[in-house]
Amino acid sequence: MKNSIARGEVLYADGGSIDAGWIDVLFQEGTQLGYAKFDIVHSDAVMLPLLQKIESDEKKCWQLYEHLKLEARRAVGGRHRAKVDVQYLIELYKLCVSMTYI
Prior knowledge:
Elements: E1 10-13, H1 16-30, E2 39-42, H2 44-52, H3 58-76, H4 82-99
Parallel strand pairs: 1-2
């Protein structure tokens, strides 16, 4: 079982620079290493290319993505907290992947 994030490992977040800032703060509180030594990538960078495989029109792709976000949030439920947000991103990823197999 892995207990920490390795140097250079990628974290996916949907809050952009806000999440990156919070992750840095949390990392600094839990380690003597200073700033987070891993990459934070917006989850859109993973999800949208999946949907673009089935919908090339940018506006329609974003509409589909927004619909899937709502569906994922409903499936997970709960308040905006770290565990729920991770579950939400996992559910959203599953929905995006499932669309590519239709």
